[in-house]
Fold Signal recognition particle protein.
Amino acid sequence: TLSDRLNGIFTKLRGKGRLTDADIDATAREIRLALLEADVALPVVRGFIARIKERARGSEVSQALNPAQQVIKIVHEELVNVLGGDTRRLQLAKQPPSVIMLAGLQGSGKTTLAGKLARFLAGQGHQPLLVAADLQRPNAVTQLQVLGERAGVEVFAPEPGNGVGDPVDVARASIEHAKRVARDIVIVDTAGRLGIDAEMMAQAANIRDAVDPDEVLFVIDAMVGQDAVNTAEAFRDGVGITGVVLSKLDGDARGGAALSVREVTGQPILFASTGEKLEDFDIFHPDRMASRILGMGDVLTLIEQAEQAFDADQKEKMTAKLMGGEQFTLEDFLDQMVAMRRMGPIANVLAMMPGMGQVKDQLADLDDKHFDRVTAIIRSMTPNERVNPKIINGSRRARIANGSGVTVMDVNQLLNRFVEAQKMMKQMGGMMGLPGSRRKAT
Ligand code: GDP
Ligand code: MG
């Protein structure tokens, strides 16, 4: 996985003080693979990586991160920018009804989205009208009617028995109807083909001209992969797109289509569809998608938290200590524990650490309550005891136990465990680019 590969790079790069071109190239190569694996289209990947390298070269050295982590942070930030640079809400007409037209290939999730959007907008106090302008497939109208009923939203469809109407006429008539019955948002579902098709595109363009939409939302299946670019270009040129909706994000696709479509259309991704139920729907979150594309949400979270939790001072102190081979004291243990507690429940923190599998088992019993108790014990020690645990004899143990409200056995246990913890902390610290990684040249 990407995390594993990046972890390899982390290890190699640990100990370096700043980003060299070789560091940047190596990390960029891994990111490039990650993007391709996520099905971002090749030309999009090329442009993106070029921008990343540019930015990484000029970047400042962060105290808390090692070079690979820094590049990854830049990549993530840049992805979030690209995916959400101009995220916006639906643009509605000054004079209702607003018209939202849906376009996309067959099976991309348009009809489902129509229902979701109707429910979403109704929940915001709007009075939407759903319009069945897909008269291609026999059950397309019924499908929309079922969804409309579930969403509690009226569906405008050709009268049954009248034969199959013309979708352009239906769409045009729906606007008149919406005005008559005072609906403020009209959602027009349209037909799609399995592939891009001139006739379908012409029909979509005709419907567009008939309803003069405020939004043309291009719905694309996130699983679609490399083909996303062609499809997006066809709809951009054939109908004109004002916004994008990603569907089927509940699947296991990495979501590279998002990036490709965003780049090709130049239009924002407004919504994400994440299931078959009406409520499986959300406003698009660029940061989540960026993490998904990189397949490294956990690593990123850890980087962020590590950066926040360890201030530069503390880090330098620890680094100097461990680099100098000085004894890692209970005082340091306590400092680190407090910092780690700030990062969240210890189990979560451990779960996020690359390569922490083995140690995690060993620490399974170190739950949060335990950590709090350990903290209390150490706080009951004198500064001298914390630096020289060896001097903690029987009477001192009794005093400490008393002071922290635990048994002498608990204190013994902690002191025994401390030796193991020394090793563990060294390992964890190293992973976060902390102790023993870099040291200011003196
Ligand atoms: P349309 O042809 O563009 O109108 O696509 P539909 O809305 O009919 O969706 C095609 C199929 O995909 C249907 O079986 C939907 O239930 C399913 N579908 C649509 N959106 C999603 C989604 O976000 N997640 C999942 N898992 N299925 C979806
Ligand atoms: Mg449909």
User: Anything to note?
Assistant: The chain is about 55% helix and 10% strand. The pocket of magnesium ion (ligand 2) is lined by residues 110-111, 134, 140, 189 (CB under 6 Å). Residues 408-431 form the longest helix (24 residues). The longest strand covers residues 215-221.
